[in-house]
Amino acid sequence: MSAGSRPLVPSRLAPGGVAAHGPRRTPTTKLGGYIALMKLRVVELLLITTVPTMVLAEQGWPSWGLVVVTLIGGTLAAGGANAINMVIDRDIDALMERTKGRPLVTGLIAPRDALIFALSLQVAAFLVLWMGANLLSAVLTMSATAFYVFVYTIWLKRTSRQNIVIGGAAGAVPVLVGWSAVTNSLAWEPFILFT
Asked: What is the pLDDT of residues 120-130, one digit of tens each?
């Protein structure tokens, strides 16, 4: 790569600039808007690390109920964090081609409604994990949300080119949550996976 050239990434290889998923669709219904706020394609990438970590912690397959509860709690928490991110970033989302069709930018969903939705998802995530797994898993999940919102979204995203590198720590928390859901503790193994 020559000096000053942009890095080659898959999104630059695909026609229309978006690899693997095709062009982004702007939601047209309220339901579609709320689903878009959660960024479920990103959430699935976060959760893909949770189940293998649970298997390692259990040294076998954990109960299906625990796996389902942990994945539901993780989906709700990550979706809520993503929605908070969109509320905060609606000003810069309006300026970017990739994000200008998001529901807060288009006016499909009001910022207040999006924030209520996001906070409701966070409360639901905490309760699902606390009652279905344990308090440690619920607290770890909320710590990831806090890090994502305050460190990545509010602070680093607008001030540092290293925002995604440092902010990515929030995306590594699902391995800690998966481990703690099974063991109700933390050990060195999930921290190795975390890093």
From this structure: 999 999 999 99
Strand segments (E) across the chain:
none
C-alpha closest to that of 107 among 93, 124, 123: 93
User: Which tens digit of pLDDT belongs to each residue from 141-192?
Assistant: 999 999 999 999 999 998 998 888 888 899 999 999 999 999 999 999 888 8
- What is the Cβ-side half-sphere exposure of residue 131, based on CA atoms within 13 angstroms? 7
| Superfamily the domain 37-194 falls into | UbiA prenyltransferase (1.10.357.140)
- For CA atoms 156, 157, 159, 160, the dihedral sign is positive
pTM: 0.85
Domain boundaries, the chain: 37-194
- Spatial distance between the Cα atoms of 171 and 143, rounded to a whole number of angstroms: 11
Measured CA to CA, the distance from residue 109 to residue 37 in angstroms comes to: 9
